[in-house]
Amino acid sequence: AFHEEFSRLFELSQEETTPQQDPRLQHVLVYFFQNQAPNRVIERTLLEQFADRNLSFDDR
Asked: Is 31 among the domain residues?
């Protein structure tokens, strides 16, 4: 699941943006990818998403 979500968000970060639908506002990792954050930061943030019980019911 980790790698699937990582890939999905990376692909989202590569899409063209419009002011009406900016993917950086949909997930913080898209913002991190677009701003070339260190992989350690990206991986840690994604792992925290899976560790948070409140986010475990997210269907994305």
From this structure: yes
* 6-51 pLDDT tens trace: 898 889 888 887 777 777 777 888 889 889 999 999 999 988 887 8
| Amino acid identity at 17 | T
Q: Is-contact 5 19, C-beta < 8 A?
A: no
Q: Residue 29 is encoded by which pair of tokens?
A: 């990792």
As a whole number of Å, the CA-based R_g of the chain is 12
Query: The domain containing residue 20 runs over which residues?
Result: 2-55
| 47 and 5 Cβ atoms separated by less than 8 Å | no
Does 60 reside within a domain?
no
Q: Is the pTM of this model over 0.70?
A: no
